[in-house]
Amino acid sequence: MKSKYYLKFTGKYLLRMITLLFAVSVISFVLVSLSPVDPVQQYVGSVPNVSVEQREKIAEYWGLNDPPVERFLAWGNSLLHGDFGVSLLYRRPVLDIIKEKFVASLALMLTAWVFSGIFGFAMGCVMGVFHGRWPDKILKKLCLIMCSIPTFWIGIVFLMIFSVQLGWFPMGMSVPAGVPAEEVTLLQRIHHLILPALTLSFLSFSNVALHTREKLVDVLESDYVLFAKARGESSWSILKRHGFRNILLPAVTMQFGSFSELFGGSVLAENVFSYPGLGAAASAAGMGSDIPLLLGITLFSTLFVFLGNMLANMIYGIVDPQIREGYRNE
Length: 330
Prior knowledge:
With about 325 residues, the protein is an all-alpha fold. The protein has 15 helices and no strands.
């Protein structure tokens, strides 16, 4: 039965993924086509003595004189063959740049994801246990404040405190400046990763904490918990046997749902810390009108967020059999 469920589940999500990627491709291509930016001028840049004839040859080679439908079909055909084009900024294949930058971004996002999950769940449990008392009131106000603070502002404050004043962490980059890549140690990479990851984790850990708090309060005020207290069961035993079991799935839901937030927040965090990841590349592509790179990152980010949500739903089905039953009845 489980194999049948997963086969049906995977088939549905595969169809949704193809539909989503097609829709994003069409919308992105239309928006880029309507942009007033001249891609030939962006490619030529400040190179002098480029004649009108040479510009026409470049436009003809790229197919810019063809109708939009033909250009979209040609671009889509290239995508199906694994050709995302050449970046105008880096003068390299877009797919190579995405692979290179995504490795750095993935390390940053995974670290921030773990930080937000651990800190958010722990803080939510503390607030739920001390519901209505001063630790709950202080932490709740702190979480509400942090939900409204933009990522770039937190990053700047962290840089001022921990890098400039205290000198605990470097000012930015993913490796020490001037050190060859083969000589960079793992500890140095981790040292450069901690502060951007902490900044990025602030995006979602407050939401996880507040959501966990509400679920834990509902559990601790339920009838079966009151009955357990009446039997003389200890607070730790109640929290372990009833609390964690009932709040773990909602916490996982919130945590996996934060993939899109982390990916969007990485653009700001990576720019503040000059971290050479996919978010910084997307920002540079947008500012520099690097259309091939911008379209490639758009499709890749869509696929990344979609697969993250699909993985979350699969985990829900494993943890909660009722969700599996719901998919069977669809």
